[in-house]
Sequence to fold (919 residues):
Amino acid sequence: MSYKKNEDLDSGPGGSAVDKMTVFQDCIAGFNASPIHPRKCRVLLTKLTYLLATGDTFARDESTRLFFSITKLFQHKDIALRQMVYLVIKELATSADDVIMVTSSIMKDTTVGSDVVYRPNAIRTLARIIDASTIQAIERIIKNAIVDKHPIVSSAALISSYHLLPVSRDVVRRWANETQDTVLAQKTFPQYGSAIGGSNGSSSGLSLAGAAPSFMTQYHALGLLYQLRSHDRMALIKMIQQIANAGSALRSPAAVVMLIRFVARVIDEDRNMRAPLYSLLEGWLKHKSDMVNFEAAKTILEMRDASDVEVAPAVAVLQLFLSSPRFVSRFAAIRILNRFAMIRPQNVNSCNIDIEALINDSNRSIATYAITTLLKTGNEASVDRLMKQISGFMNDISDEFKIIVVDAIRSLCLKFPSKQSSMLAFLSGVLRDEGGYEFKRAVIEAMFDLIKFVPESKEDALSFLCEFIEDCEFTMLAVRVLHLLGTEGPNTAHPTKYIRYIYNRVVLENSIVRAAAVTALSKFSLIDDASVQASVKVLLTRCLDDPDDEVRDRAAMALRLATTEKTVAKAYLAPESIPSLGALEQQLIIYVTGGGDTASVAFDMSTVPFITKDQVEADQFRQKVSSTLPMSFGEGAEVSPAAGGKSTPPAEETAQAYAAALAQIPEFKAFGAVLISSSPVPLTESETEYVITGVKHVFKEHLVLQFDVQNTLADTVLEDVSVIAAEGDDEPAYVEEFIVSLPKLEPQTTGTVYVAFARPVGEEYAGAAFSNTLRFTSKEIDPSTGVPEDEGYEDEYQVEDLEIGVGDFLVPTYVGSFQHMWDQLSFEATETYNLPGLGSLREAVKAVVDTLGMQPLEGSETPMQNATHVLKLFARTLNGGKVVSMVRMAYSAKSGVTIKISARAEEEDVPRLVVGAIA
Fold:
């Protein structure tokens, strides 16, 4: 058999273009010819397979004609032809009619006496054409095939069972005993001599020349057992224990890896099974297969709240693999250790000597992971030496690994601020090297973080960025740097030196960069220096002749603001809050496409919610952290370990959605912009007739309680739906102003009720507990007409209380150095509490974070030890004041969790309120 390179990607088999109708006609003629020509039919089937694989489809009547024409090829015994027949029949079975009629022809090849080469293909094809009404007819065939002595037949039956699960799960469940026997069986895989016979119809192509061990059938059988028992946790645990206790019966490394993943799921869901199943994982660390060792080690390192004693054996095994002579083993070991070092670097310190030996590894991927791991686990004294070693091989690795190195250096900069000069010099050096957009963006982001969180690096970093935009090939990066120069440049000791770099962009760049440069330049007009203001005005005046209208408009606006009061100019050029871009885009689309004469009606900017810069920065930080979280802690949406691993939407998106909804209600327009919105709080059980959640919205002078009401009843309509929220005190702090009720709530739908209160004057952080009662008129729906009855009855439904605490008035915000912020603030309060109802430090962390509503810092939201932990929190008040809190925790099985909470703030009363919120 010869192989020919396909020069033309648009051509089909043989190098010639494949026409669908020509192939269809040739197939009908060739398959119905007598006698059958196997070679010609194989070529036609190949072309047909090519068409189906490239997305071509046939009409249902054409598919049916092709299907039954192909079945006539069963008359010939050519092995290769029969394999092609089964391949094409499976593809056409979904688009042809009456495919069930060929069941008997296929079943002949599934019997024990037929050729073993035919049987796997026949079983797989049979599973694709069978339906729920006839599956009992093949039940005996599949059951016998599952325990067949030939592994290829057994695997085909097991894989077919996967496909039959959606057709008839109850029937497949009856094959569980045979499947389990296959898991514990030890079969051999026959070697084949001449796999394909000649065209003379001989079926003697199979030759049992020898037998080599093969256990892949165990992998397929174990996967099917899991599908049958995945919804029953106790059955799954029993299966794991039974197979694990069978000792050496499970000979397939792939099957053991799958079993380890089942163990990981059970450990994650049931803490009571952790101890017995951990012993299994520890035993698999000594398995003779490397892939099993790696999977067991990775699973142990991913366990929640794993102690140092538990992770030590896994780290020790991976340390042994670091000196393996095989590239793949060293790569797998260092990669797992690298990701584990992101969250627990102290546990990887013992491997540093072996990791240092990999810095000069000939495989640059291994060397990159070794360097980045050392950057996470090393101490301050080793930083300079590591930086020199990194510089030696940066040009030899791909952009993907360069980004990993840069991200590790960014983390190291924040960890050791005193070493910022050497690391900044390294970042500026790699910024001059060749690289793609993502790599350059990673370097820019690292410098941005240095400027924000290590103030002493600002001057040097800004200078390096100015040099970068002099020869920047990426417009988006140039715009970002110009924005940063406009924000940070006016606040430096010598702001005028940045004006030249910015104005050069106006002269030399494209219109997008020129527009960004004009905006950055206009912010320097806010400096209290007459000479600087005069210079900026001259430069902006020159921009009025720019050929691009966007540049001219920005320059004209900046010049106009320069003649107004500084407070007005600052509100436009350096605002404290910005419009929600998602909501602004939505409102503009509605305005443009709303119909009518929109040109005569001005766009109402008051309908667009505003969010503070702190909220934007906090959300950007959360997104950055979630994109780099190791292992199972971060893919896509933000995952908070303190919240039990559940995905939560980004804070900015949630704030935008709430603010946009509130802006559409006329009663709330006089309240101004919403300052902060809480997370949804469940007020009922999820199984009740009416499921209610509450959200707290804080405005400058008002409080709005949002109640989302879900009517789960299918035959009842609720009308005049409202919520009566009242404080339990005789003299309530919050005065109710009005209720935005819900006129009608259809069955199995969700509606929203709002209750507005005036906030107490002079008490910015007043707490309260609202008792809530759902009131409505219930009307049943006539099942015959589907129309609600004319008369209903009034009803009330009591729900849980909704509490207002100090956490509802704090905006969670990220800050680079917790200790620096702690040392800055003077007002302090401290309290000690015992929390006996909590069963672990993780639960305590979640409870404190939920209560205080502050941002966890420095990875403290994930306890590394089971006995003690320190939680570090930061937030800002609604007035912009800083609040920082340190919570020291200790856990014992006897007394629960004991915490000592200390808080510092810029405002005198805030620390006392923060520490008192835990009581």
